[in-house]
Amino acid sequence: MAKIDMFELEPDMVLASALRDRNGRFLLGKGVKLTLKHLKIIKMWGVVEADIEGISEKDVEARKTAHMDPAILEVADRLTRKRFIHADLEHQAIRRLFHICVLRKAKEITDGADPARAEELCDHLAHSDHNLVTENPGTKIDPGELIRNKIKLPSLPIIFNQINEAISDPRSSATHVANIINKDSSLSARLLKIVNSAFYGFPSRIDTISRAVAIIGTKQLSILALGTSAISVFKDIPSDFIDMRSFWKHSVACGIIARIISSYRNNTMTERFFLAGLLHDIGRLIIFKYLPLQAKEALLRANRTNSLLYKTEEDVTEFDHALIGSMLVKEWKLPAILQDAIRYHHPCSERQIPLEPAVVHLSDIITNALGIGTSGEQFVPPLNTKAWDEIGMSTGILAATVREAEPHIAQTVHIFFPDE
Ligand SMILES: [Fe+2]
Ligand SMILES: [Fe+2]
């Protein structure tokens, strides 16, 4: 018996255990032979995997790689293993993610990607090596003081505060929120593009903000608007260390993946997860911009020693981007739940982890594993098992999430950055 991903199920396969939907509701009994009709319905029910009789985990892997060149698979395995050196391949979720990434890498190479180029894990850093500072910058920095007094943060658009106030005021109506958003024509246009994208899959076109508010809900649309405004604030910060498009690609991908995972948990506030994923590494932009010596030192150490960047950051400055990012969104008066999702997205404690940071943590791991953009990290961060337990899903959501997220990432990046 082995677990088969939903999109690999075929007619005539026999269920080795009862099939239940994501709420645990009984769907099909043990021993049922699947038909085409069952497969269609299973997809509609959002089932991510099924136990199938007469097939082993090895058979499943063999089926997936049967049509692939073994030499390419070997290269893909080696490259992926490099990215996973800090991850625990003994953990079932990481092992599953690793296999997904090997197949994806093998497909990329088969489709013409240059493996030698792919092997340069942190190309941008390698090239900027000669500019890096080698001595310890030394000075101890108080991150709170930095946020409050030392740096002049780019000013937020007025609309950001107005939306924020409208979200926190229970008396504010849908029309009030729509009116605020309508005042900013470029924000309205971008939001309409987002809600009309395939990601939302609404059958008919939504052409006004009032209609978008009515369909998606005041809170959900406001959260999307906040994310769009926050990006506009940081969009033009030049960085010597990182390709900004790649940074936002990583952030958008993490947001989309977080949103999908939260939807598997039947969470109705999926946009909150999108915003948390979108802003999770925003502290790194503060470090890149305002602490360039420390940023260089941390990047250099991580690169030289094959270490995780968030750990070398902490060694150099005694805080990491997660802390400074959460302080920034606190300063922006964004909800505490979002502050925590950012603050604890690299959890290292054995304490229980709330759902929001747990989902962002897993989404960041998936995004780094897939190598979609980068925020400077070259490795897959280790999975916190408490976070995985808190999410409480089967490993089948990994393949389902990757499959659902990939087509939407490039499109969403393009909506946020149409000119690039
Ligand atoms: Fe991070
Ligand atoms: Fe990240």
Task: Describe the structure in your own words.
The chain contains 22 helices and 4 strands. β2 (19-20) and β3 (26-28) form a beta hairpin. Helices cover 60% and strands 3% of the residues. The longest helix has 21 residues, at 244-264. The chain is globular, with a radius of gyration of 22 Å. By secondary structure, it is mainly α. The chain has 3 domains: 1-59, Molybdopterin biosynthesis moea protein, domain 2, CATH 3.90.105.10; 68-115; 126-154 and 237-416, Hypothetical protein af1432, CATH 1.10.3210.10. The strands form 2 sheets. A two-stranded antiparallel sheet has the order 1-4. Strands 2-3 form a two-stranded antiparallel sheet. It binds fe (ii) ion (2 copies). One fe (ii) ion (FE2) binds next to α13.
Can you tag this structure with a few keywords?
Hypothetical protein af1432, Molybdopterin biosynthesis moea protein, domain 2, 22 helices, mainly alpha, binds fe (ii) ion
Whole-angstrom Rg: 22 Å
3D shape: globular
Order of helical and strand elements: EEEHEHHHHHHHHHHHHHHHHHHHHH
In the CATH scheme, the class of the largest domain would be: Mainly Alpha
Report the span from N to C terminus: 48 Å
Cofactors, ions, other ligands: fe (ii) ion
Provide the CATH architecture of the largest domain: Orthogonal Bundle
Oligomer: single chain
CATH fold-level name of the largest domain: Hypothetical protein af1432
Number of DSSP-assigned strands = 4
SSE-based structural type: mainly alpha
Strand proportion, as a percent range, falls in under 5%
Give the strand order of the largest sheet, numbering strands 1, 2, ... along the chain. Answer: 1-4
Query: What's the main sheet like?
Result: 2 strands, antiparallel
Number of DSSP helical runs: 22
What is the number of independent domains?
A: 3
Query: Any low-confidence stretches, pLDDT <50, length ≥5?
Result: 118-135
| Portion of residues within helices | 55-70%
Fourth-level CATH superfamily of the largest domain: Hypothetical protein af1432
The pLDDT mean sits at: 83
